[in-house]
Structure formats: structure tokens, C-alpha cells
Write a structure and sequence with these properties.
Elements: E1 8-19, E2 29-45, E3 50-55, E4 62-65, H1 79-90, E5 98-104, H2 114-130, H3 136-151, H4 158-165, E6 170-175, E7 181-185, E8 190-196, H5 207-222, H6 235-239, H7 246-269, H8 272-288, H9 295-304, E9 310-316, E10 323-329, H10 333-348, E11 354-357, E12 364-365
Parallel strand pairs: 3-5
Antiparallel strand pairs: 1-2, 1-12, 2-5, 2-6, 3-4, 6-7, 8-10, 8-11, 9-10
Helix pairs in contact: 1-2, 1-3, 2-3, 2-4, 3-4, 5-7, 7-8, 9-10
Length: 375
Amino acid sequence: MTHPAAEFVVIAPGRVNLIGEHTDYNDGLVMPCAIDRGLRIAVAPRVGGRCLVSSDRGGHAAAIDLDQPLVPGRADWARYVEGTLAGFQRLGWRVPAFEAVITADLPAGGGLSSSAALEVGIATAVEMLCGRRLDPIEKALLCQRAEHEFAGVPCGIMDQFAVTLARRGHALLIDCRSRVVEHVPLGEDVAVLVIDSGVKHALADGAYAARRRECESAAVRLGVPALRDVALADWPAAERRLPDPERRRARHVVTEIARVVDFAAAARAGDWITAGRLMNASHASLRDDFEVSCRELDLICDSVAGLAGVWGCRMTGGGFGGCAVVLVEASRAAAIAAAAATRCGEVLGREPAMFLTRAAAGAGPLVEPPGTAAG
């Protein structure tokens, strides 16, 4: 339930990335969409100089002293909140004391951007408390910086941009270098099935950062600012200059950026067969060249392949666990979900959690009045 004294409620969605994985920090292209699951943050002003945050995910409630400069060092989940508040301190905003009660229907550690949802949700709450608004891109970048500095995850801009800028019924084609966003309509004939592998990832454990370092090293060897600057036509010559594993990491990035361009064109044309094939190729590249998939995700993708009405399937998120995203024909979505549950249950030894979604809007105030159920 919503906090009984809540003055307002913010909803912040999770996101799935339809295609374009590990390309954002290489200045490339990505194509995520927000989903209709996420976080609800019930906010109530309070007396004093502290922010109090609690979550239905368990663990202790956290207190953050707003009268002191906030610096990295906290080890618990509230570091995402603290990092976001620190960004507003840097801007000279005076954030009033408040209490926030967070409820979620988004799998934590599932690669659906629960951390960005928390950061952007808190930033939206601060805007409402202060009666001021940041430019949306500035807001997304503030939240990205919070994740870098306070959580130790050197993420690109995709997650925070998606949670901030998403539009209902659309995917976002994001150019991570220019920060230009195009809203690409997803037709009524398309739905997305999200299947949780049940394997939790922790991107701060070093594997994500290692992939980023490998990509940066490959760019240096090739004499380009970022792997975005290696054209697909130039790759055969470029790859001979790279040792493994940098060669395979770079090959994924170069080919993935090209797949995003082709996927966006297919989506605009309503050609979901081609879009699905590109998703399948993306998963194979993430599995074999970037090595961020896992056995469970591979089994899920293999299990749903060939189901009538399934166009494509791939892992989504940073990898090492999390969820698979399946592009499906909307009219068959319920039947596909039932069949997928059976097939995946057989190969995994347990029926995975899954849900159907459409492209949702970005973070903002909930239209329901305070005191209603959080769902």
C-alpha cells in the first residue's frame, strides 16, 4: 500500500533493451523501451534535515543527512538514492526533508534497470518537492553520474535515458554520442514477453567493468575515439589488428551497432520477421563474442525459438543473468506465454517468472490520488 501520509506518488518504469547491448558506452546506438512494471515511490515531506527511504524488498530503512555534503562510500541499496540527491546538491538545489516508501513489481538484478528506475524516480520526486524541473537529458545524466560514483557501475546512458524519456507505444532509438533520441512507434501487433532467468547479476562485481576496459583498449589499438567509429565495412581489416579477447569484444560492438540501424528500419516498416532475426543474431553475438550470457538465458532463447508467433529472442541488460526479451505477435501473446512457460520449465527444471508488456511511458507522477493501492 502507499504510505498513508504520502503527498504524491512517483512511478518509474523499468526498461528492456530490444537491441543494442553494450554499445552505449562505446558511443553507439541502442533501442530500449520502458515497460509497464517498475517502482512506485510514495513521498511525504517531513520535519528535519534527513531523507528516510524504505523498500518493500526488505532490508533496513535508510536515513540520509541532507544537511551534509553527500559523498560516495555507502554500501547498501540507498547509495543509489544518496548519489541522486548528491547530484542535486551539486546543482545548488536545497532538497527539503522527506520520506519515501518504495514498492516494486520489477525483478531486482534482472537486467530491467531497477537501479535507473530508482535513481530517476527519486530525481522526479525531488523535482516535485522543490517545484522545479530539470531538462530531461540533464536529469538522466545526473542519475547516470550517481550510478558511476555511488554504485561503482560505469554504465552508459541508455538506462537513465530510457526511464526518463520513454513514450508510451514507442521504443527509443538513442544515439549515445550525440544524445539524439528518436521515438520509433511499435505497432499494436507487437508485444514483448519478458522471461526472468532467475540468475541474479551484480554489475559492480567487475565483469561489466572488464568488458568496458576491453572495448576501450580495442579502440585505442585501432586509433579511433570509440568503437562506434569502426564501420562495418572496415571491420575485416580492423580485426586483424586486435588480439583476443579484444577482437571478439569489438566484433560484437561493431556488428551490434549495425543491427540496431537495421532493427530500427525494420520496426518503422513493421517488418517484425526481420527485427526478430536481428534479435536472435544479437543474442548469439552476446553469447559467443561478448561472453555475457549464461546457460539459463541460452536455454530460454533456444526453448522459445520456433513457437508460432515468436519473432525473436535475446538476453537484455548487462548480462551475467537477468532476463530474456521475446518479441511476439500480440494476438498470440497469451498462448505464447503459456507455451514458453512449459518449454522453459522443462529445460530449467522450474517454471520461470515471466510477464507480458507493451512499451510504456517514462517516469512521472502517478495520476491516482494519494492513498490508493500501490499494486
